[in-house]
Amino acid sequence: MSTYAIEIADKALELLKAPSADEPTPFFKSYWRTPMRQVAASDLPLLGVYILRETRGPDGYENAGEIRFIHRLHLGIAGAISNADPGEQLRILEERMADIDDRLLTNPEFVRMIEGVTAMDRRSQYAQVAETPVAEIQIEMVVTFRTCWEPVVPDDFKTMHVETRYPSADADPAEVQQITQEYDIPQNAKGTHDGPENPRQSRRRS
């Protein structure tokens, strides 16, 4: 799993925890960054954001240039309430989970972190936790982003030393003036036909 995927999940939870004009007082009592394995009644209502899985595929030809990936990150977002009073609580939960589209997909901070959203899936689940019936709405959001893994080259070509021997290799420099010159090679120089640097590359790594 890439560390950038963790940053995306952290940002999603941060934005969902923040108060909004429509919800100045938070509906959820607890916020988790892990799946809901063991839930106590005192934790409810609860909102969790967690990483379900992450897959990587080649970005372009896999055998040309440095290693580049297109990542597909599956984010799980789950809201849970006590189902002892299913009417009003469940209605509010459904409204809050429906608000997630607005809270994330229209927020510049979140949208800047990803390249796109390829799928979203919603499902409901009902379970019994100890003595507490729990209703849970789960959303799976699939987002994409890219990484570029530039090789570490310990012996960079930085300086070129040139000495001439004219008119032949055994010419005496004392008899024929020769040229000795050193050239500093610019690092990360861009050619005249290179496009602009992609801001998503290089800095998004695990």
Descriptive notes:
- With 206 residues, the protein is α+β, with helices and mostly antiparallel strands.
- The strands form two sheets. It has a five-stranded mixed beta sheet with strand order 1-2-3-5-4.
- The C terminus is likely disordered.
Keywords for this structure?
206 residues, alpha+beta, five-stranded mixed β-sheet, 36% strand
Report the count of strand segments: 7
Structural class: alpha+beta
Oligomer: single chain
Query: What is the share of helical residues?
Result: 10-25%
The biggest sheet, with number of strands, parallel, antiparallel or mixed sense and barrel status, is: 5 strands, mixed
- Strand order within the widest sheet? 1-2-3-5-4
Q: So what's the overall shape?
A: rod-shaped
Strand content: 35-45%
Computed over alpha carbons, the radius of gyration is 28 Å
